[in-house]
Model the fold of this input.
Amino acid sequence: MKAIVKKGVRRLLRSAPFDGFTRLLAALGDRRPGLLRVLTYHRVDEPGRRPDLDPRLISATPTAFAEQVRFLASQATVVSLDAVRRAVCEGEELPPQAVLITFDDAYEDVALHAWPRLREAGLPTTMFVATAYVDDPGRPFWWDHVHRHVNSREDLTTTERVAESNRLARQLTTMPAESVATTLATLDAPAGD
Done:
């Protein structure tokens, strides 16, 4: 399990969110009017704290996120989704160095680690909530379901787990929504059923 977590941390440091934040930092010098930078996060947590959740969705650790918030509060103009709507629909100008912060999927760790930092800094954010999960917070997203299933397979090496996880993800993303639930149920069925 330690090898999986270490590999996940290395992957996180080379991931698109970290690379994207680095590119954002470089682009903040670009003061073109109307330019909007969008930061999209999924999770803010320590790798390995929730082994039942896919660590590839961690966008930042709590410490890194706090540093990003401090940077954004001092070097950018974080705008609300309503300000973006007004710019698009009513022709209002966005301020220089405009940044929109969004979170996908409303993971619990966002409330624990991200929201307090954003609130302290007075930065608006937009949360996209998967409404099918509001009444059942224990219900995993399909990618977490796949992660849990694949990591429970003691017959697979780490490399095979990654390959199987990627294979299942490719398969599920090409299916109609109704078929995804059926396929996920078969992952949990005992062998031979």
Summary: The two ends are 28 Å apart (CA to CA).
